[in-house]
Amino acid sequence: MCSVMDAPTADLRVVDLVECEPAPTAFSLPRLHAERLIEAHLPVLRRLHGNAQAMAALGGPRDAAETAASLERNLTHWERFGFGIWVLREWATGRVAGIAGLRRLHFETTAETELRCVLFPECWGRGLATEATRACVTIGRDWLGLASMVALTPPGSAAWQRVLARAGLSFDREVAWREARRLLFRTD
């Protein structure tokens, strides 16, 4: 059983951790509750992946088959690596806000751990992405012992770049990813 973990910033306190393998399968933040992605979340992923605004930074909406394949890849990731994507719910309403997490990916010539957060547009502008992203960085460093994490963003995604900066990532370089120009941010 995992214990309560105090993070370095006052506004981030990861509490109520459930058994870890090695990452927490569920955790609570001041305004969000995160739960490990499971098969039952397919309808949530379909809504999120079908939202053009939410998915703009990831190349646009995904159809049902792409979403099902994404779910399968992410479930396999949890089994293989012991961490992955969490579904985020707002404490106040119980409504799903989006997803966030850490995923291994092969990038250029090395394996990296990517930090990802995608929220429904109605959850934007309230600091929820920063809250979730900071938690992912803390879990990556303190639970998983990762020396570095990366995030990819389109050049024009200023809001996501501000979230990354607030979570302790800084611009590393411009890269090509899946036939598109992206900015690579990295934890310090």
What's this entry about, in short?
The chain has 188 residues and is α+β, with helices and mostly antiparallel strands. It is 29% helix and 32% strand.
Write up this protein:
The protein has 188 residues and is α+β, with helices and mostly antiparallel strands. It is built from five helices and ten strands; from the N terminus they run ββββαααβββαβαββ. Strand 9 and strand 10 form a beta hairpin. Helix 1 packs across helix 3 and helix 4 crosses helix 5. The relative contact order is 0.15. The N terminus is likely disordered.
Record keyword descriptors for this entry.
about 190 residues; alpha+beta; about 30% helix
Strand order of the largest sheet: 3-4-5-6-7
How far do the termini sit from each other? 30 Å
Total count of strands: 10
SSE pattern: EEEEHHHEEEHEHEE
The radius of gyration is 15 Å
| DSSP strand content | 25-35%
The helix fraction, in percent, is 25-40%
